[in-house]
């Protein structure tokens, strides 16, 4: 496990564990241990017309703007962020790695236990 140190705009550096996992697309998935919990936020990514579409999906804590996790949706367009904290609102942004579509953002999302 690597350690990430954040020093920008802080009087003292803030360090926390950072898990890095490689997925089949050779992309990197970042898991920040600051947001551990037992809740899940899941959904799907589709294109206009409803066809599933594989996308990079980013989970953002809404109040702080902090990126919590990044995952790829599967071939059916499904994604899930598990083990996150409850009692907060999140924003999810899906990005097309092929550049054919614009990003899609959903906010005010609440995870389920």
Describe the structure.
- The protein has 113 residues and is mostly beta strands.
- It has a domain at 34-109: Immunoglobulins (Immunoglobulin-like), CATH 2.60.40.10.
- The chain is built from no helices and nine strands.
- The strands form three sheets. It has a four-stranded antiparallel sheet with strand order 6-5-8-9, with no helix packed on it.
- Strand 1 and strand 2 (14-22) form a beta hairpin.
- The radius of gyration is 15 Å and the shape is globular.
- The relative contact order is 0.22.
- Mean pLDDT is 78; it is low at 1-27.
Summed up:
The protein is mainly beta and 113 residues long. The protein is 0% helix and 52% strand.
Q: What spatial form do the alpha-carbon principal axes imply?
A: globular
Q: Label the CATH architecture of the domain at 34-109.
A: Sandwich
Number of helices: 0
How many angstroms separate the termini? 27 Å
| Count of individual beta strands | 9
Give the biggest sheet. 4 strands, antiparallel
